Amino acid sequence: MSFFISEAHAQSAGAGAPPGGELFQIGFLVLMFGLFYFIAIRPQRKRQKEHAAMVSALGKGDEVVTTSGILGKVTKLDDDYVVVNVADNVELKFQRSSIHAVLPKGTLKAI
Question: Its domain of life (predicted)?
């Protein structure tokens, strides 16, 4: 094994690295995290806050669309659930978080 030792040499500290290379790497990582934050994390949080505000502002008589695409009118509200009237004598119970959007009044009659 001793014949490998003569060929293995440790790289000296300043032999091939540009000066300030470590600082550049740290700066690059900070820049990449900042870019990722503004492109992915921030818009997603904004959408989550808007959805939470919309769900908390639901009221009886609102016309809604669920995440599965079912349209209906809110007939009852609970803390965690919403009862939606989708047809005559047909009411479905959904979690509040499954409401995708609130439609303008009169949309169901126009369809």
Answer: Bacteria
